[in-house]
Automatic annotation (TrEMBL):
CDD domains: ACT_3PGDH-xct, PGDH_4
Associated pathway: Amino-acid biosynthesis; L-serine biosynthesis; L-serine from 3-phospho-D-glycerate: step 1/3
Recorded catalytic activity of this chain's protein: (2R)-3-phosphoglycerate + NAD(+) = 3-phosphooxypyruvate + NADH + H(+)
SUPFAM superfamilies: ACT-like, Formate/glycerate dehydrogenase catalytic domain-like, NAD(P)-binding Rossmann-fold domains, Serine metabolism enzymes domain
Domain ACT: 530-602
Compartments reported by the entry: Plastid, Chloroplast
Record's protein name: D-3-phosphoglycerate dehydrogenase
Main location per the UniProt record: plastid
Length: 602
């Protein structure tokens, strides 16, 4: 069965999730088991059950709107709930009010921290963030208190794309600088000669909703557009007339670079001294994504050196930036105060989107834009906890083995278990594998609620099978295997005989372990990070690599070698506590007997 593309039809009762503090609400969900079994077994139908306790179903829930929201959104809310619009609340005032509210809607200016959830006394059931980012909401505290957090990720797409194009054109023609000059009483036509956009190459880094809309508009301006995004569907790019390329090719050939990737550990300071050095001299950069994707000090150095001719920035690592910021004050930098979503139309769209999400959640519906998971029974979490961790880490490992430019579209998950079909719901495990595959390069928070929806949106097809084993069903699972088909691997030994990237793991003494890579058996704890090396099987290899890591003060936690036969080929898996430097990894790669290696960050 295709897990990500066939979501069960859910029928939910129409009621509010509001309750008085002394009446705890119950929120439980059971989904149809989507796994395929290798042994013919009778399967029972399972249905979604959502329950909530309330003192009175006739009472309307109360929604606190703590920051300005468009009138269309307020109208939707008022049809279902009592709406309290109280803006500019102090933290103390918010904590006082929140115990009387079932839902809270904020933008980016209100901090919804743990104290807010504790002050709600259990009544707060939904927090709606009118926008994309949720940096101002404590997700872990929300989940602990059984509160669903939803956002509005799509309504400002066009506004952000239009602002990117506006900055692109304004930068190319020195509009902001020339405007300031004329207003200062000067007339410097020769100083502000610009460059044309027609025929220039624009590299769009991050080809999601906003990036693809920027590409459409840039094509209309006569630009040649290339893009880099490991998850961008090739057919969607071709339909727009965009060529998907590697990251290095994109930054090396572009005249203009437009940034549209999320801020994740993988993209943090992605543009730095090293990447600026690879760019075409005189490149121009636009950022309407997240400030942290650029090393701002490195950008100033690149501007001063002439490597980067100009930059146009709507976002910064610290907002607002300091008044004496060298970057903001730089003559060849155009800046705006995070205006990407600031159009009248976008604000109304965000208001409608977040109002619909909040009302749906209060009715007991599972929101597609949820960014945290509903509460799961404690006994289920306790038993599955190490397997949940194993599932996510196998997903992270597998996706890091995919070579750049290969789109991940088909994933197969196999569960080996002695339990009967009805005794193990794999929904949570599937969600965590999806999380591991998607989150490292996405701003989406994948969880039990939105995993299948998120996979479908990205064209990711996940199938599951269960291998039914003989033996005692004391533990839920014997092993989990993740396969990614129709891709190339940056570590050839991870490919199975049938041509898929394959990793397998199991839980030992409560700790997730990697037990198989491709056709090679290994045994390494999934803690810290891992180095995989394919080598000629000969004496002294463990000592050689261990010595290189020791000399660089990198602590080795585990080391395991799997081989096909003595003196043939082997794969060595090394668990490390710290990330080795590039020089250290280079030294490992230069060991004559090592044929290939890869560093994988967990």
């Amino acid at each position: 069965m295709m897990a990500s593309l066939k979501t069960p039809t859910l029928k939910t009762p129409s009621f509010a999730l509001s309750s008085k503090p002394r009446l705890p609400s119950a929120f439980s969900a059971a989904f149809p088991n989507t796994a395929r079994f290798s042994r013919s077994q009778p399967q029972r139908r399972r249905f979604l059950i959502v329950t909530a306790s309330s003192s009175s179903f006739s009472n309307k829930p109360t929604v606190l709107v703590a920051e300005k929201l468009g009138e269309a959104g307020l109208t939707l809310l008022k049809e279902f709930a009592n709406v309290d619009c109280s803006y500019n609340l102090s933290p103390e005032e918010l904590c006082t009010k929140i115990s009387l509210c079932d839902a809270l809607i904020v933008r980016s200016g209100t901090k919804v921290n743990r104290e807010v959830f504790e002050s709600s006394g259990g009544r707060l059931k939904v927090v709606g963030r009118a926008g994309v980012g949720i940096d101002n909401v404590d997700l872990s505290a929300a989940t602990e208190h059984g509160c669903l957090v939803v956002n509005a990720p799509t309504a400002n797409t066009v506004a952000a794309a239009e602002h990117g194009i506006a900055l692109l054109a304004a930068m190319a023609r020195n509009v902001a600088q020339a405007d300031a000059s004329v207003k200062a009483g000067k007339w410097q036509r020769n100083k502000y000669v610009g460059v044309s956009l027609v025929g220039k190459t624009l590299a769009v880094l991050g080809f999601g909703k906003v990036g693809s809309e920027v590409a459409r508009r840039a094509k209309g301006l006569g630009m040649h557009v290339i893009a880099h995004d490991p998850y961008a569907p090739a057919d969607r790019a071709r339909a727009i007339g965009v060529e998907l390329v590697s990251f290095d090719e994109a930054i090396a050939t572009a005249d203009f670079i437009s940034l549209h990737m999320p801020l994740t550990p993988a993209t943090n300071k992605m543009l730095n001294d090293e990447t600026f050095a690879k760019m075409k001299k005189g490149v121009r950069i636009v950022n309407v994504a997240r400030g942290g994707v650029i090393d701002e000090e490195a950008l100033v150095r690149a501007l001063d050196a002439g490597t980067v001719a100009q930059a146009a920035l709507d976002v910064f690592s610290e907002e607002p930036p300091k008044q004496d910021s060298k970057l903001v004050q730089h003559e060849r930098v155009t800046v705006t105060p995070h205006l990407g979503a600031s159009t009248m139309e976008a604000q109304e769209g965000v208001a409608i989107e977040i109002a619909e999400a909040v009302v749906g959640a209060l009715k007991g519906e599972l929101a597609a834009t949820a960014v945290n998971a509903p509460m799961v029974p404690a006994e289920v979490l306790t038993e599955l906890k190490p397997y949940v961790e194993l599932a996510e880490k196998l997903g992270r490992l597998a996706v890091q083995l995919v070579a750049g430019g290969s789109g991940v579209k088909t994933v197969k998950v196999s569960y080996a278990s002695s339990r009967a079909p009805d005794d193990l719901d794999t929904r949570l495990l599937r969600a965590m594998i999806t999380k591991g595959i998607i989150e490292p390069i996405s701003s989406v928070f994948v969880n039990l609620v939105n995993a299948d929806y998120t996979a479908k949106q990205r064209g990711l097809r996940i199938t599951e099978e269960r291998i039914l084993l003989d033996g005692s069903p004391e533990s839920p699972l014997e092993s989990i295997q993740v396969q990614i088909a129709n891709v190339e691997s940056k570590f050839a030994s991870a490919m199975s005989e049938s041509g898929e990237i394959k990793v397998e793991g199991r839980v030992k003494d409560g700790i997730p372990h990697l037990t198989k890579v491709g056709s090679f058996e290994v045994d390494v704890s999934l803690e810290g990070s891992i180095i995989l090396c394919r080598q000629v099987d000969q004496p002294g290899m463990i000592g050689t690599v261990g010595s290189i890591l020791g000399e660089e003060n990198v602590n080795v936690s585990f080391m395991s070698v799997g081989r096909v036969a003595p003196r043939k080929h082997a794969v060595m898996a090394i668990g490390v506590d710290e990330q080795p430097s590039k020089e250290t990894l280079k030294r490992i790669g230069e060991v004559p007997a090592i044929e290939e290696f890869v560093f994988l960050k967990l």
